[in-house]
Write a structure and sequence with these properties.
180 residues, lipid biosynthesis, 6 helices, transmembrane, 0% strand, EC 2.7.8.5, globular, transferase, mainly alpha
Length: 180
Amino acid sequence: MIKKENIPNLLTIIRIFMIPVFLILTSISTDLVWNIVAAVIFALASFTDYLDGYLARKWKVVTNFGKFADPLADKMLVMSAFIMLVGMKMAPAWVVAIIICRELAVTGLRLLLVENGGTVLAAAMPGKIKTVTQMFSIIFLLCHLNLLGTILLYIALFFTIYSGYDYFKGAGYLFKDTFK
């Protein structure tokens, strides 16, 4: 029997194991049927992101594993999907490069904040909008709903840049000695 307090972490682990399944499905073919199956897997994995966070907060079972693995799993899932979309010529490489660079930069910023006082950088609304639009753009592009997927991709790009700026602006004090 799985203990209630372990369910959020189990959902994160399931999401991590869904990534190779997603990658295999997107590698098999660019055929619409395979892409829709991959989109369903991606959507289910994305839903576990929401569900594990919701359950962890509701049940007050936030763990160090969850703090580490949940954002890592999210980034692995989304970055893998965007890389596959570039390979399938469904997303421009420059857009995906900006998204990936921002994710890596904000991850590094989170590490610096924790190291310099234990501050945890919580997701603000622009970051949440970024995540939702990224996930839906991936799903729609995989389902060959190109116009809607592309519009959402560019909205995601805007919120990717804006939320990254917002996070760095709020943590600017970390870099005050950089250009003295």
